[in-house]
Design a protein that fits this description.
With about 240 residues, the protein is α/β, with parallel strands linked by helices. It has helices spanning about 5-35, 105-120, 155-160, 170-180, 185-210; strands at about 45-50, 55-65, 70-75, 80-85, 90-95, 95-100, 125-135, 135-140, 145-150, 220-225, 225-230, 240. The protein is about 35% helix and about 30% strand.
Length: about 240
């Protein structure tokens, strides 16, 4: 019975994660459907998971074209979305309730970095970051590092790029290179789920030790407008909080 609270907590986490995962998949399917409408010179790769042996990067969509490589992160969120490039977290506001989520621009920067490392032998290829939100989201976002737009506008953003940087032969080589080194299907999903599960345990372990999950700093009890909470000792450089 001592394990009951732990099992219950794990079950709740898995249910919440699965609900969010399902909503995310709906958004990804919408984007994938729209990307199929692009001309044949654009090659679309969906759900790309690449690994360097130490970590994995799960990329919703990669579009390889003569005009560059478009890396797309889908967020099927509704409500008001607030954020800037340098914010660690962005805010979703739904009827006055605020929810924090990791900055998708930074998230996609990690994806692009992984792709650059994978494709280094192809030289200085332009990478274009796109963050796609649901049409039910109102975007109050400032970003110079990515196109933050709605799902229905993704193909328009892609086709705004008209200067060729990559030959047709290179496009084919890049696509083949990625396909030869990515995880696909059930293997990819299992790896990504394992990563999220392990990250959850790392989070809980850090909290139990009074450590910041993000930077390893010490958690300090503070009082705020809405009650007490624990913040990182490295604030304002690190803005991790835990109630």
């Amino acid at each position: 019975m001592a394990f009951a609270p732990l099992l219950l907590g794990l079950l709740i986490f898995l249910v919440v994660f699965w609900l969010r995962f399902s909503k995310g998949k709906i958004g990804e399917e919408k984007v994938a459907t729209l990307l199929r409408l692009l001309p044949k010179e654009y090659v679309v790769l969906n759900n790309v998971i690449i690994s360097n042996g130490k970590s994995t990067a799960q990329i919703d969509h990669v579009v390889v074209s003569p005009y560059g490589i478009f890396v797309i992160e889908t967020k099927n969120y509704k409500g008001w979305i607030f954020g800037k490039d340098y914010y660690k977290q962005w805010t979703q506001n739904i009827f006055g309730r605020r929810y924090k989520f990791y900055n998708p621009v930074k998230q996609n920067e990690t994806h692009i970095k992984a792709l650059r490392k994978l494709l280094y032998q192809f030289g200085n290829i332009p990478y274009i970051s796109i963050i796609a939100f649901s049409s039910k989201a109102s975007l109050f976002v400032e970003s110079d590092q990515a196109h933050v737009t709605h799902i229905l506008s993704v193909t328009s953003v892609i086709q705004d790029y008209i200067i060729e940087h990559i030959s047709v032969e290179q496009v084919e080589q890049i696509v083949q290179f990625i396909n030869d080194r990515k995880f696909v299907g059930d293997i990819a999903e299992t790896l990504h789920l394992d990563y999220v599960y392990n990250d959850k345990h790392h989070y809980e372990s850090a909290i139990e030790q009074g450590k910041c999950h993000w930077c390893g700093g010490t958690l300090v009890k503070r009082n705020g407008k809405y009650g007490s909470f624990y913040g990182c000792s490295n604030y304002p450089q690190c803005k991790f909080t835990h109630k």
